[in-house]
From TrEMBL:
One of its GO terms (molecular function) is hydrolase activity. PANTHER family: PEPTIDASE S1 DOMAIN-CONTAINING PROTEIN, SERINE PROTEASE. This is Trypsin-like serine peptidase. Gene3D superfamilies: Trypsin-like serine proteases (2.40.10.10). Residues 1-35 form the signal peptide. Its EC number is 3.4.21.-. It comes from the Bacteria. Keywords: Hydrolase, Signal. It is an enzyme of class 3 (hydrolase). Residues 45-57 have a biased composition (Low complexity). InterPro entries: Glutamyl_endopeptidase, Peptidase_S1_PA, Peptidase_S1_PA_chymotrypsin, TAT_signal. Residues 36-64, 134-153 are annotated as: Disordered.
Amino acid sequence: MRSPSTSFVAPGGRRRRRLLAATGLVAALALTATACGGSDEDTANGDPGAAASASGAADGGDKLQIPADLSDRLKEHGIDVDDWKDGGWKDWDKDKWLSEAKDFVNPVIEGLWKPERMMSAQEADKTMSVKDASAVQDVSDPEPAPVEAEAERTPYHENAAPVGKIFFDSPEGSMVCSGTVIKDVNHPGKSNLVWTAGHCVHAGAGGGWYRNIAFVPAYNDYGRSEADLTNANPQEIAPYGNWWADWAATSNGWIDGGSESGGAGAAYDYAVLHVKPEQGAKSLEETVGAALDVDFSAPAAAEAGQMGAWGYPAAPPYNGLKMFKCLDEPGRLSLDASLPTMYRIGCTMTGGSSGGGWFRVVDGETKLVSNTSIGPLDNTWLAGPQLGQDAQALYENMSETYGGQ
């Protein structure tokens, strides 16, 4: 679900970018992911904060209990968890579309995301119109030349294991985004954190949290066609299983300013999920065998060097079944003089690639530095937020408060 936009050309016209050799970044991301051994997930303690939100199942067992304070809040909205799991989540009445940061609820509905339901999920057709472009032309760099997206090598678990596909339900139906397994500084080797875009979890101003959010690492591991997936082994589609978001956090900038057109929230369009498996006890990082650090240094575009964007584009000419990547040197995109600038690279990926991680090599290590947020209607470039102190605070709060869940 990438929000496309009406593109504009900054003064000087279209800038031709030198296509860099892919060897360094691609080789660094080619992480062989062998499932590791380990103990059960840590038991968490800590209370929900303002930026992150809790969810869980009401039936106990190995599933999380909904915290009492959130359960009371749900009752205030007239929501019964059991009714929710029986289909009540399909009620998108404005009064029941929970929107505040602490209102997120996502109880596991085991078996909901069957392979055929995953394949039917669509990218959202959203547009962003760049208004008052003349006011930011002196800040934005010239529009980059398109970079043709390249299919990732299969199997994905050997070449880009931390990358996966995010599924969720919205008032418009089942939708898709992309995401990345990231490390948890407070739980080394046992992370359950996924990085994605804010608009993949929350509709922004005037809207609320999306529902039934699940992450599937290395989705369609062997890049099978739609016809081949009809009778595919479930392990080929979801080699590491389905992981439900039981906690979620996105920026106040996105919640307050995000819109179907990107809006003022685009520069803050990032989110962190804490996930748990439908079945099993090992952490996401142990199961996948790989996770990436996040680089919060927000380097200037001119100093960032080569970046690569990974994701599962779903709008034509793609169908959301295969993983693609683009490599380019970033430039600056300013949507408003009062907002932080965004990174922009040439890339032909379409809707569905939203939330997919942008990576760069720092001291020989591949790190996540941004995520896909917006792009033009003609699918020639992508833009993503710079991850600075606010993004780091969001991540640290998630790690410290909920990481051990």
